Amino acid sequence: MMTPWNRLRRTALFQREAELTDTGQIIGWWETRRVPYNLIVGIAGVVSIAACFLAVGVGGAFLKEPLQRPDPPLFGLVLVYAVVANVFYSGGWLAELIWLRLWRIRQPRLAVLSFSLGLLFSILLTLLPAVAAVSWVAYTLLTRQPPLTP
Description:
With 150 residues, this protein is mostly helical.
């Protein structure tokens, strides 16, 4: 069975056929993947936020009292998260350039591996609030205790 992750890994997004010879080409390879990276992580963010609201809504309905929802200023953190994620994304091509300068070894698999692991880490980190919210609501429902305020 092919998982969505394996299907995604077979796309051109995760390929580097030619050996890149200069700084501009390396940065260009990474930057052509920035928009797809942001879209994938953004979709994970929408799923995460939806799961949080769904968990809180369902939990509140079962407890017959509303659970505390996040304050609107918390959504400003979503923008901060997006900026920080993109700063770390730039670290991918920076690390590749440093690798190339220090060891003078061209390693195209390094870029593909760095991109893959970075994207996977970003997706998992983005989904973490949903896991926390669902776990918190499940714990509250199973123990039938009033929810603790975070």
